[in-house]
Structure formats: structure tokens, C-alpha cells
Amino acid sequence: MINRQRQILSLTPHHAATLVDVLRAWTQQKGDAVGFAFWQDDKQVHLTYTELDHKARAIAVHLQAMRWQGERVLLMYPPGLELIAALMGCFYAGLVAVPVYPPRPNNNITRLLSIGEDAQAKGILTKVSLENSLKQVSKNTAFEALPKVATDSIILSVGEAWQNPQLTADSLALLQYTSGSTGTPKGVMLSHGNLLHNLGQIYQRFGHSANTHVVSWLPPYHDMGLIGGILQPLYGGFPVTLMSPVAFLQKPLRWLQAISQTQATTSGAPNFAYEMCVRNIRLDECLDLDLSSWELAFTGAEPIRQETLERFATTFKTYGFRREAFYPCYGLAEATLFVTGKNKDEIVFNHTSQSLVSCGSPSDDQTIIIVNPESREPCAAGEEGEIWLKGASVAQGYWQNPQETKATFQGALASGTGGFLRTGDLGYLNSGELFVTGRIKDVMIIRGQNYYPHDIEAAVSQCHPALSAYWGAAFSVEVDGEERLVVVQEVERSSWRRLDEDGIIAAIRGAVSCEFGLQVYGICLLKPGSIPKTSSGKVQRFACREGFVCGGLDVVFGWELAHAEAQRRREERGEEKEKIVDGLIGWLRDYANHHINSRLMDERRCISPHVVLDFGNKGLLGMQVPSCYGGLGLGYTDTIRIIQQLGAIDPTLALFVGLNNVLGVRPILMYGTDALKAELLPILATGRELAAFALTETGAGANPQAIQSQAISDGDGWLLRGEKIWSGSAAWAGVINVFVKHQQGISGFVVRRGSPGLRQGAEALTMGMRGMVQNTVYLEDIPVTSAQVLGEVGKGMNVAQDAMMYGRLAIASACVGGMQRCVQLMWRYSQRRQIATGKLLDHPIVLHRLQELTCAITVVQSLVMRVGKLLDAGETVPAEVYAACKISAPEFYWQAADLLVQTLGGRGYIESNIAPQILRDARVLRIFEGPTETLCGFLGARVLKQGETLQNFLCQTLGAVEVGTRLRDAVDKIRGRCFDGANITVQRWVYHQVGKLATEAILWAVLDDKSAINWVKHRFDEQLQEILSFNTDNLLFLNGQSLVHHLNEYTKTIGDIEQNLAGEAQELDELLRQSGENPQFIPTTADLPASSEIQTWLKTWISQKLRQPISTIDVNRAFAEYGMDSVTAIELTQDLQEWLKISQPLDATIAWNFPTINALANYLGEVTKENAVPSDNNLDDLSTTDIAQLLSQEIAIARHRKPQMK
């Protein structure tokens, strides 16, 4: 608890006239003491008072030589110690400091330019590391001509020539530009006297002393971050530990860790920061926290909410935080910073419908009154009005703005008493304590920053031509205790009936984010002429807000962030992201040279742990996860570029990273609940845990609809039961996305490592990709709840198919890099290898192969990059295009890998020469995420049956009308030529061939390169000719009997060999083994109807479902000929299972395994009764052995059956 009786130590320079005097005094009295520390990447850099004094004097000498005394200079620095040195350097030189956020590449600098112009800045102070980027963003602007001084390049020894500028308390120290109007910025003029008076108030009211230690992550450019976080510790002569705001926002736990590790006594932030801690910090992360030293936790800058403070105090009480440490306070930039604060140890709450927190009372030399803003008469106690104040901390006014200065700083009561600062805030006094209730102005306070509606409205009105240039409103609403931005805007009459809703929403969000760094919570596009207005024609923001909240607006299209978070992220790729990606690619290349040994990982069948850790630290495992969850927030194109690079380095690593991003993280990011995302995304994005995808089963590979694993109802949740195979990274994963079937369909669940019933099985000994573990996963009645559901219950295949589609794009991207690596090695070898005729490179066969592969690389790279750009632009890409990516890229990559081995000759067969591993790794990509043959059949069937989707994409989205027309004409020819009387076997062959043809068409449609266009056109024509020259006599389709005959002949010729010689002992000695085994689930099977009855049921089902006259249904005709697809096949299986009343799920592929009514009915009718568990009625017919076996089975099941709660 703060001891309010502490005496201010004699060292406190409260009689100093300027901040220069303050630092000089501390330098003389305790120069070697550390005054400032900055945390970055878990490391601290320090600055003593003497070091700061030396730096400040050196900077001042440099600035004094420029004869700028009394002038304004912009301070453009990232958070850190150099900003503090520059600030003090300005004071030491007698300059007026104007701290501003440094510009970011590809970011609108209109506000910075406005500040620079308003302040009449003479120059810019910055760091060497920012000089180049500053020059780039300032090109062709007023900043380009301003002198720029990199203060960290100034030699310290020049400081010996420093001359004290002889400032006074009235000397202007800095202009404080808070967030607000970008069009007409207002710089608050703060003198040294203003600053010292306010710092003295803070020192006394906070109970600070020489023993105080502050931690601050607040933005160091104004208000609490600058004055409270930097100048207050300087004033008091006690240490401060600083952090970047980004460090806190990325991981709020860092704030509390800093307090704990430094045993800080004072720290604070706006209300939202405490809320973020409660929401985002997991308790298992807090085990080492010690917050017992935290004596004063101030909060202000935005409405203070009792609920937030109570939740924070309750949550962190276990770790030493005391509720009485909270210190609500009130302040504003126009009063330097601090206005009122508590003088007691407990918070006083006003228990009304909306709990308000007292902000305390002013100091004795400050006056606060509550005034009716209309009559300018003082309000009675407890009556709400505008907050007016007077005192030595009140600023001198707005820089070069006498009109606004008069209106704000020279408020006068009706009685004539004047000299008051009109805050624009609403509140009331109760027993001398201030309660702040809102704003009299339209200013929105969001996360402690001020935003003016008309600025946001102006930006929105200009961001899209379909929006009205005049009629719109911006306001804030409270969502979960936090103020969020809403925009309503009328649309133009010429546009409202044919709106590009997604494009407009993206434009509004982008404009607001770019201009103001704000996230839009809600957007309403209104019918022309419908926005609420006053009688004089002004937009009524309050009425717009009420209409939004109550649903009373005439909305054409509405969008809310809460509903849109589960949709695909659309991020424009800008220079900033491109630089990040370029940096990552450069890092990967260097890292691959020095820290990756692919052969070693391949031989050991394990990715080196340091690689996984380093990839996680670099963000490669959460590339598309938004930055608010700790990810890189990259778009699709940027992600593709990185995966291409990984494909060139090591296909195993490319697959590992792609799997984690696409199959592991994406389902959670796109379909997880908010709570699930908040819990898992931060640990997955940073690689602290891996994620896996469990869909494939023994009987469900290329056809995932055939999965047999089940979700069995269990109270309010389910029990997951089944077995998954070949799940990549599952044995390493902390999170597995599991897909199972149940009565409502197929559902996806997120299962954490350590869940009861989750058991990892044996690793599959794969031919390639050996560094990445692929293993069996056993689901032995894993309990799950609705909170773990991905998407909607029963619609899990939507989640899985979404992930697999993007997985196909990722695989194609990796293949591009792999192909480039193959060609690179072929070229390197062939230009050095001498053969009898000269260089191998000069051989026409080698040249032809290189040319072919170069064209293949060009077409596939064009396809994946075009898809990435479309996705970034918010366009919909049909499933056919993802299939084409997966069909083409792995096939070309396999050819490239095979030709690499062939080109290297004998050297291509030597493991140490890279090629064999590339060949083995490349092979599996033709199978993962859908084998080539399956996808070709799918694509061909889609083109032949539902070709409009692909036609629209080719002709409209890509603008490739010629290609679309050629493909449509070709399909018409094929349909007429090959489908006339064709049987199902021929039909499937045609599907496959048309799939290959459509793939060539899609590759053709995305190309710009002339030579590549000619190459792919030739392939298209060849493929079409092959299909049109089709003749059943050209195809050798062996029937079952002839195939059996051939196989029997082989057995006679070579025998039937199965090696049984024992290898290494793998099992634990039985004397060391635990007793008991894991029994398998043994379902019961009822007696089935006769095959004739089943035939009748099947004919009736087909007649009803596929709309076929029952008289035309031939029991020997294939289901596919009646129009059955994979979806209706699943429906048939489920309906058939229910009709037969059997407990064991039927194989979802049964309609394909037995493709006619006759075959399926005979199979079901001949199911052997010995596989059925006998009923009670025939137990008497069983032998003693039979009964013993049944009893042991039942006991085994009972042992593993969970007890049911009654």
C-alpha cells in the first residue's frame, strides 16, 4: 500500500525551472544510476543519467550549429532510448520537440505532413536505421526538403562544446499532437513550467519516491507514454523499464512479466489494456508471476469500467496483485496530462446501471467546476455538465491557432469569470470527486486515442465510387465493454442495385485502417436518401447510432466484424508486407546454407528441433494468422512466395510448414470459435505448439467421405472413437483437427494433446518426406464439447475441404520451388560435365528437357501466383482451379526430379548428391491432398456436367474468353464423340482425360509469357486429339476373370513370396510389459433382408432421389449412370444403414465398390451370419467355446466403456 506520509526526498528537483535543469541535477548527484531501460527481444539496454546527459549535449551541439533555437523539429523514432536522447537533446539546444509516430512504408502520411506543416518544422530527427525508409516515404512531399539528422550517428565527444540555452519556465518545450483531426491538427503548446508543474502533481499524488520503479509500454509520443512514462521518472530520479506498444499488443503477458521481473511499483494503462490481460493471458502462463510489488496501477485515457477492474483484480489476485493498487485518474493533453486522481486506498464506485469509477479530486492549486455548456452556469453537486478547469498545468494554447485557443482555453462563465479550459468532457462532482460520464463533442475515444468522426467520414466517402460523397456517419458503440467504430454510408443511386458489396466493405476497412490505424466493427450501406438528417440537412450521428443499435436503418447491405471473422482474410499486399516477406526469404536462404542438413533429417527421420524452433520464432508456422494473435498476418501471395522458397530448400520442410499453416492452423482460424482462436492461435502462430490434421483412414483416402470414425453422443458432448492414419506431424502436435461422422453428418473437432483417450500410434516408414513424422492416431472415446467444434456440427467436410483446397495450392507452390531447384542442379551439372561430344549442356536432348521444364515452371508459377492475387483481392476461386494446381504441379515436379536423376547419370543414384532424396520426396506429392487420377476424374466430371462454373471463371474472372471458348467447344465435341452408348468404364476414362484437358486450359488462361502460351496450347491440342481419337478397341479393359487368370499365371511363374525372416526386436519383453490389451469395438449386426428385397428398396430409393422412372431402372446398370455423385453416394449409404437397422456403419464407398443395384444387393444379402453377434434367442445353439469367446468380447468392451451419468 502506498504510504501517503512519505516525505519527498531532497533529491527531487521540484524547484528546477526546466527539464534541462532536472537532468543536469541528476547527472551531478547520481550520474551512474540507471535511469532508463528498454526491453526488446527479452533483452534490456540501459541508459544512465550521465550517458543521457552526454548524448543530449552531443545532439544539442549539432542542432545549435544549425541555429534552430526556438524552432520546432519532428522526432521520428521507434520506441526506445534514442527517442529519449533526442528529446533531451532538443531541450538542451533550446528547440521545441514535436514527437510523432515514425512513418511506415506503404502507409498514408497525410497526418504527418499536416503536423509538419502546422508546426512549421525546421527539420527531422531520426535514427540511421530509419533514414532510408524515411527518404522513400517522403519522396515528392514537403518532408523531402527538410533536413534529416540521424542522432545515433553523432559523435559523443562533440558534446563538450555544449552551451546552455538559458531557458526559463515559460520557454516552450514541446508541441503535443494527440490523435484527432488529421485535416486540421492542433499542437498543444507545453512549456517547461507546464511540464514541471504537472510532473510534480503526479509525483505527489502517486506517492512516488526514490524507491519507485515504473514499467511502461505506452506510446512514447504523447500523454501517458511520454509525460507519465518518460518525463515522470526523469523528474523523480527513479528508474523506468520501457517496452514497445507492439510488444504488449502481441503478448499482453509481457507487461506483467516486466513488472514481475523488475519488481516495479508503478505501471498503468487505459482500460482496454487490463481487459486484454484478462482475455488473452492463460493462467498456466502466470505461474512465475509476482505482482506483489505493484503498488499503483493507474488507469485513464478512456472510460474506466468497474467490471474490467474487478475482473483483473480477481484474475491476478493469486499472483500478488492487490485490488487497492488501482488508481483511476483523469487527464487530457490540454492540461499537460494529469488533472485528478485518488487520495484514498479504495476505489469508490457509483452503483448505477452503468458503473462509473471515481477519478478522484484535483490538487489544491487546480480548480475544477462543472458547467452547463449551453447556459455557462455552474451545475449543482451531482448534476452532469461540461468539465472546466484552471491551473498551472493548463497548456498555453494551440500552436498558431488563436481561434481554437480562444474557444478552448479561454472559457468564461455567464458571470464573466474566465480563464477556464473547456475540456469537452461531461461529468459531475460528488463529495469533491470527479466522475467522467462521456464527451460533449463528437470525438470518439477508442483504446485511449481520440478520433474525429468527420475525418473518418471524409476518408470513407472517397474510398469507393459507389459510395455517396456526402451522406455518411461514423460513431462508436460499446461492445463487450470496449468502444468500437461503426460506419454508415449511403450508396449512389446509380450503383445501389448492383453493388460489389465485398469490394466496398474491403475498401472502407482498408481506408479506415490505412488512415487511422483503426479496425471497423460494423458497416451499414444505406439506400440513397435514407440517412437520418436534421431539418437543416445535417447528418444526425446520434440517430444513426440509435438506428444501428436498434436495427432502424434502411440498410442495403450490412457487415459486422463479429460475423466476418470466420470468413477468409483479405489483406492487400503492400510494400510493408513485401519487405517482411523479402526479409524472410533472405533469412531462409542464409539459414539453409548454415543451419539445415536435409540428408541428416532424412536419415534420422526427424526434422532437427532447432529448425522447428527457429521457424516458429520467425513466424513461419503462423504466416496468415493475424498479428493480433501473434502471427505474421500475410496474404496469400506472400505465403505462396515463402512456400516456393521452402520447396527449393527442402520439400519436407515446405510440407511441414504448409501442413501447419493450412491443415493445422487454417481450420481454427477460419472456423474456430473466438475463445478457441484466442486460446490456440497465439501458441500455434509462434510455433510453441504444432497443429495436425486427422482425416485419412484405412478405408478413406482419396474419398474422405468414407471415414468410419464416429462421434457418439455423451450428455452435452460427444465421445470420439476411431482410428486415423498417416497424419502428418500428429505425434509432435499439441493440437489435432479431427474429423468424424455421426448422425448429423461429418464434424470437425479440435483435440488437444493430453486429452483422455487420445493415443498416438506407430510412425509410418515412408519412402520420402522422411523427416516429417506421419503416424496413426487412435481415438479411444475422447470426450469433446461444442466449444471444440470447427464450424457447424454436421458440416465438418466444409472445414476439411476448405483446408484441402488451400493445401493443394500450397503443394503446387512448393512444387514450383522444387522444380526450379531441379533445373538449377541440372544446368549446373550439365555445363560442367564433359562428354564425348563436348559439354553435356550442348546436347540437344538436355537442352530440350531444360526448355520443357522451364515452360512447366512458368505455367505453374503463373497459376499459383494468379490464384494468390485473386484471393488477396477477395475473389472466389472455384474448386476446379485448386484441382488443376494439384494435378499439374506435382506431375511436372516428378518429371523434373526424374530428369534430374537421369541427367546426373550414375551420380544421380548417389544419396549424397541430393537427387535421390528429391526424387523420393517429390513422389508423394502426386498422392497427398488427392491423387492425380482422382482429381483428374473429379475435374473432368465437373467440366462435363457442371461446366458453367469454370467457364465463368475463365471468361469473366480471368478474362480469357478465347480459352473458355476453346474448352467449351472441345467439351461439346468430346460429349458427342465419346459418350454415345459408353459404359461406365469408358465414362471414367473420359472423365480422367477431360480433367487433364481442363488443367491445360486453366494453365493457358493465366499466362502472359508468349513462349509458354505456345507450349501449353500445343499440349492442349495434343490432349484434345488423344481424346477425340478414342476408340474402345484402343483400350484394353481386362474383365475380372481374365485378370484372375493372369495373376494365377504370375504365381506359377514367380511364386508368391512374402519374406518372414525376423528383423530387429521391437516389442517390450513380456515380463516388463503391462498386462491387458486395447480391445477393438465389436459392433453387432442384425439379420439382413434377402437380396431381392434389397434390390426393390434400392430401385425405389434411386427413383425418388435421382428422379428416375422406376420402370427404366436396370439393376445391372451402374449407379453413376443414373447421376449418382459422391454426395448422393453418402446419402445412399446412410439411408441404407438405417433401413437395414445395423449398428456397424457401412463403408461410405460401398456404392463404388459394388457399382450396380444387383452387385450391391447380392453383397448385402450374402453377408455371413457368422459375423453377426447372436441374439438371446439362439444362445442355446452355441457351443461352450462360442459362449466363452462372446463373454470375453463383452468383458473387453465393458472395461473400456465409460460409465454413464444418470
TrEMBL record:
Keyword Protease part of the UniProt annotation:
no
| Name under which the protein is recorded | Putative acyl-CoA synthase
In terms of Pfam families, this protein maps to: Acyl-CoA_dh_1, Acyl-CoA_dh_M, Acyl-CoA_dh_N, AMP-binding, AMP-dom_DIP2-like, PP-binding
Cofactor names: FAD
Q: Which family does it belong to?
A: Belongs to the acyl-CoA dehydrogenase family.
| UniProtKB keywords | FAD, Fatty acid metabolism, Flavoprotein, Ligase, Lipid metabolism, Membrane, Phosphopantetheine, Phosphoprotein, Transmembrane, Transmembrane helix
Q: Which organism is it from?
A: Trichormus variabilis NIES-23
GO BP: any one term = fatty acid biosynthetic process
Matches recorded under PROSITE patterns: AMP_BINDING (PS00455), CARRIER (PS50075), PHOSPHOPANTETHEINE (PS00012)
Cellular-component GO terms for this entry: plasma membrane
Bilayer-spanning residue ranges: 81-101
